C-alpha cells in the first residue's frame, strides 16, 4: 500500500511507520518544513494548505496529528491549541481528498478514549454515547472532521486508550519513579484506564487498513485494569514497591482540569469491534504488557 501519514514524528507515528514499512508498505510523511528526504511531503495544516496531488491515488491516509494532551498546563490558549492541532489537519486532509480524482480508499483518523468522558465502571463499547468535558468535546469534533472526507472513502476513527511504551508516552514520567521505588497510584486508583502497548497500537492500525470496519473503533487491550492494578503490576515487574499514592486534591491543585480529565477520569472501554473482527494482541494481558514495558519480557 501507498500510505500518507500525518503526525509521523510522534511516539505512535514513529513506531507505526516502522511497523508498516516492515510489512512492505510505502509510507510518505507529511511535514511542515521543507522536505529533507524522499519520503517527505510538505503541507501547512494551520493554513489549510495541502497539494491534492500528494494524496492522488494513495491507498490510505493515517492522521495522528495533535498537540500533546498532558505536555503543558491547560490554559485557555493551550486548550485552543489542543482543538486546532487536531481539527485543522483533519479538515485539511478531508478537503484535499475531495479535490482528487482518485481519493484514498481509507482514512484512519485518530481519536481517543476520552470521547466517553468520565464514566466510572460502565462498560463502554463503540455505540456508547459521548461524555462531557474538554477532551470529550475535542474527540467529538475531531471525529466529525474526519467524516468530512468524500463519499467512497472508508473513514475509521480509532478511540485509542493509554499507550504503554518503554519510553515516552503515558509512562514517560511514571516508569523512572517506579524504578526508584517512588511511584504509586493516582487518586484512589479505582479509575479504569483503557490501556494498550505501543506495538499493539501499530498492529491495530495496520489491521484496520485491511479490515472493512468503519466509524469508531475502540483501540485498547481486552483486559480491563484500574490504576491500582496497572501501577502495582508495573512495580512488580520492576521488583519495586508502589506505595507513594498521590491524593486527588494534590493532583487537582498541581494540574487543574487536566487532573480530572486525564488522570482521575475512568473509562472502562471494551475493544468489541477489534475482537469480533479477529484482531490478535501481542500483549492482551496486563502481565505481558508490564513485562514488555519494563524490559522484563
Please outline the helices and strands.
Elements: E1 2-6, H1 11-22, E2 26-31, E3 40-42, E4 60-63, H2 76-98, E5 106-109, E6 111-112, E7 123-124, H3 134-146, E8 154-160, E9 162-164, H4 174-179, E10 195-197, H5 198-210, E11 215-219, H6 227-237, H7 248-255, H8 257-264, E12 268-269, H9 272-277, H10 286-293
Parallel strand pairs: 1-2, 1-4, 2-3, 4-5, 5-8, 6-8, 7-12, 8-11, 9-10
Helix pairs in contact: 1-5, 2-3, 6-10, 7-8
Structure description:
This protein has a single domain, classed as 3-Layer(aba) Sandwich (Rossmann fold), CATH 3.40.50. It has 297 residues and is α/β, with parallel strands linked by helices. The model has no long low-confidence stretch (mean pLDDT 92). Strands 1, 2, 3, 4, 5, 6, 8 and 11 form an eight-stranded parallel β-sheet that branches. The chain contains ten helices and twelve strands.
Outline of the structure:
This protein has 297 residues and is an alpha/beta fold.
Write down the domain tally: 1
Tally of contiguous helical segments = 10
The main sheet comes to:
8 strands, parallel
* SSE order, one letter for each helix or strand: EHEEEHEEEHEEHEHEHHHEHH
Sheet/helix structural class: alpha/beta
Q: Per CATH, which architecture?
A: 3-Layer(aba) Sandwich
Mean pLDDT: 92
Beta-strand content: 15-25%
